[in-house]
Design brief:
Belongs to the iron-sulfur cluster assembly SufBD family. This protein is 22% helix and 38% strand. By secondary structure, the protein is α/β, with parallel strands linked by helices. Helix 2 runs antiparallel to helix 7. The chain is globular and about 65 Å long.
Length: 450
């Protein structure tokens, strides 16, 4: 642990942040690596020697988009965003500024490191408020005026504490009360050094009746022995609307571990989309905590695992207030010797009456050697609710494949068409054409039909 301790000492900042970092690192030091004996990690084993983790080297700012990695250039040219950041490891290497009219309205979009320096009051108020810095497994979460109950999330632990202690940078978005941001904002994170790790943190705050879309992307070439660890905090105040999109397309050899959690206020809406396509091992957690009456959460996800990829998704729909609605639809594809894991919980607190919650997970298997584990769960402590969950796993329909092949369509293209059709009901719920087109391109590459 000596090397990580030395890395912690390199982080400077205000006293409150230094204290949070140290408390998180002290917790990290006492916790064991998640293993199969922990139910939330039953099917996923992360092999990491923390004593040998090397931080990603620093990177310099570039003056022109042509100096960025080719994959990032291509992505930025094909997307519609109002402003964006590009981070290479721990550093912002390129950025565009917000339109002047948004800045005049009080909208803030910058990297988190800069935000700590220039907007300290706002960052201190919200940072670690959604994904805690040093809270152990018995974290309690409750809506205002209700009795707290233990969170059903047993996976708070070592990686979350490490991300809280050693984050180097990330994105900060703040939208004031009543302000609507029409074009999405974006953060594009890359890594360029094998055998290293990077920890990032994203904080998005939408005040009352505000509205914004944030696209959070990760991309790299093949990087053996590389770790990307992070946390995303989404604050959605009363009446606000936040659409959050996460696209993970790391190269082979990357281990990705990230917790994404939203707190949703009264009559507020959080729409989330999690796309997992890259890396060798990926553990992504998406959690919505509905803390105000009338809150709404839509949780969508797509993943496509092939070769030896291992994708683990852990979800939580936590209804802590009455009259809230949540809808989860996760769809995945498994090919070759890949492994897919889904563990989803709908948690309804005592007093959260009139809850309306749905959870559906479906997996399409393109190979008899691919494996899938699905664990949908309910924990209901109220007696006037409507909750349902379900999971299905099955192979490509041979009749559909034969129908396409009999019309002269080659095998790879026929499979691509069936996979795209299978995922279509998720994609049609995403009103971002450039994002949908990008995802469809990755799918085509996965099935060899690009």
């Amino acid at each position: 642990m000596t090397q990580l301790s030395e890395h912690l000492s390199t982080h400077t900042g205000p006293e409150w942040l230094t204290a949070k970092r140290k408390a998180s690192f002290d917790l990290f030091d006492t916790l064991e690596v998640p293993h199969s004996g922990v139910e939330a990690w039953k099917y996923t084993q992360v092999n990491v020697d923390f004593g040998k983790l090397n931080p990603h080297p620093k990177r310099e700012v570039v003056s022109d988009i042509s100096e960025l990695p080719e994959s990032v250039q291509k992505r930025l040219k094909g997307t519609d965003v109002g402003a964006f950041l590009v981070l290479d490891g721990p550093d912002v290497v390129y950025r565009t500024e917000l339109p002047a009219e948004l800045t005049a309205k009080g909208v803030i979009f910058t990297d988190l490191k800069t935000a700590v320096e220039q907007h300290a009051d706002k960052v201190q108020q919200y940072l670690y408020s959604v994904v805690p810095a040093e809270v152990p497994d018995d974290t309690t979460i409750a809506a205002p005026g209700t009795t707290p109950s233990k969170s059903p999330d047993p996976s708070e632990g070592k990686f979350s504490a490490l991300a809280a202690a050693l984050w180097t940078n990330g994105a900060f978005v703040y939208v004031p009360r009543g302000v609507e941001v029409d074009l999405p904002l974006g953060s594009f994170r890359v890594m360029s050094e094998a055998g290293t790790f990077t920890a990032t943190r994203t904080l998005v705050v939408t005040e009352e009746n505000a509205k914004v879309t944030f696209i959070d992307e990760q991309d790299s070439e093949e990087l053996p022995g590389t770790y990307a660890i992070g946390a995303v905090e989404l604050v959605v105040k009363d009446g606000a609307q936040l659409r959050y999109v996460s696209i993970q397309n790391w190269g082979k050899g990357v281990t990705h571990i990230q917790r994404q959690r939203g707190q949703v206020g009264k009559d507020a809406t959080l729409n989330s989309l999690v796309v997992t396509m890259g890396g060798t091992l990926s553990r992504t957690e998406m959690q919505s905590h509905l803390l105000g009456q009338g809150g709404h959460s839509e949780m969508l996800a797509l993943y496509f695992a092939n070769e030896d990829q291992h994708f683990d998704h852990y979800t939580l729909q936590h209804h802590a207030a009455a009259n809230c609605y949540s809808d989860l639809l996760y769809k995945g594809v498994g090919d070759d010797q890949a492994v897919g894991v889904f563990s989803g919980m709908i948690k309804v607190d005592l007093g959260a009456q009139k809850t309306d919650a749905y959870q559906k997970h479906r997996t399409l298997m393109l190979s008899s050697e691919a494996r899938n584990f699905s664990v949908p769960q309910l924990e209901i402590n109220a007696n006037d609710v409507r909750c349902s969950h379900g999971s299905t796993t099955g192979p490509v329909d041979e009749q559909q494949l034969f129908f396409l092949r009999s019309r002269g369509i080659r095998q790879e293209l026929a499979e691509k068409m069936l996979v795209t059709a299978f995922l279509e009901d998720v994609l049609t719920r995403v009103p971002l054409k450039s994002v949908v087109g990008y995802i469809e391109g990755i799918i085509a590459e996965k099935v060899g039909a690009a």
